[in-house]
Write a structure and sequence with these properties.
Jelly Rolls; 324 residues; seven-stranded mixed sheet; mainly beta
Length: 324
């Protein structure tokens, strides 16, 4: 494998291409400055403008959200996994029909495996542009997104209409729904009454892991963060591990499934089929099955990395807020 092939499997943080019209709230005040990034797979964008960096569909998607301070992502629900870790900044995650059932604040490196089937949103509460990295269950992550009714209503007042097909139409650009295509219907009160609103005490112990706790766990071997026998027990269609300088096996290994390397801190030297490159915080490296590689920190100091590993499990859900 040559250097060009290696680089084709790496999405550098500085090369990420944002979409600013990815979702229905792209014109809604308070949400109109967010940027969506699709790194691996089809993503969840409702816009044809979304750029996909690597087209693979290994049973999950990798994406990211970038937002300036006080910008928020509106309330929506997923039928499959939605896992975030904070790359930059400080973020508030909230959930419930109106976003007031519970909330948690995450700092850099913290990870949140959000329960399926609940309305959730998030907001950058830091003082600078922030970035959260996302792992989404399934090859078609966009097929399992449902917006809270008020989000659809607010968006229409600002020119964006979501069709029943899942595509956005912008009346400010002169777009309108095609003949025979109806707007996305709002959830009925009966449907809304079935959506759980778990408490903070129900969510935090089973779905949130703190960076410094993971650093302490990852001594001698990687910390299993998400998986059937992991710290956050779940089977969302992928496993997630947390690696540090002290937990790394630097011998060469061969991937059985897709593996995604996502550095959090430090610089990581990747040896891949005889070629060496360096991964930096915010970079995403997608190793296909059968890859031979080894990994080591390239500099002294703090070093941490999230690794997503595919498996044979279906893309969840296996735990949701109403299974308590």
């Amino acid at each position: 494998m040559n250097t060009l092939n290696i680089e084709s499997r790496i999405v550098r943080y500085g090369d990420l291409q944002p979409c600013r019209t990815a979702f229905i709230d792209a014109h809604t005040p308070g949400s109109d400055q967010k940027e969506n990034f699709t790194i691996l797979g089809g993503g969840v964008s409702e816009s044809a403008d979304q750029h996909v960096h690597i087209q693979d569909t290994p049973g999950f998607n990798i994406g990211a959200a970038g937002q300036p301070p006080r910008c928020r992502n509106s309330l929506h629900s997923h039928t499959t996994a939605e896992v975030f870790f904070v790359l930059k900044g400080r973020w508030r995650f909230f959930w419930g029909r109106y976003g007031d059932a519970g909330e948690v604040v995450l700092d850099e490196g913290d990870i949140f495996n959000i329960p399926t089937g609940i309305f959730r949103g998030f907001e950058n509460i830091g003082t600078d542009y922030g970035m959260i990295m996302a792992v989404l269950g399934g090859d078609d992550a966009g097929g399992g997104v449902t917006w809270a009714p008020q989000v659809i209503t607010d968006a229409a007042e600002h020119g964006l209409v979501l069709a029943e097909t899942g595509r956005l139409y912008d009346s400010k650009k002169g777009e309108k729904l095609p003949d025979g295509v109806n707007p996305m219907p709002l959830l009925s009160e009966k449907e809304l009454s079935t959506i759980p609103e778990p408490s903070v005490d129900e969510v935090l112990p089973n779905h949130v892991a703190r960076y410094w706790d993971l650093m302490a766990m990852a001594r001698g071997k990687p910390a299993n963060v998400i998986g059937e026998h992991a710290l956050l027990k779940d089977k969302p269609g992928f496993d997630m591990q947390f690696l540090t300088r002290g937990s790394l096996d630097t011998t060469e290994q061969t991937t059985e499934y897709h593996e995604i390397l996502m550095p959090m801190r430090g610089h990581w030297k990747l040896h891949w089929d005889g070629v060496t490159t360096v991964l930096n915080p915010g970079d995403t490296c997608a190793l296909p099955p059968g890859s031979r590689y080894s990994l080591e920190p390239s500099m002294t100091g703090e070093a941490s990395l999230y690794r997503v590993i595919g498996n044979d499990d279906p893309a969840g859900p296996t735990w949701s807020a109403d299974q308590r």
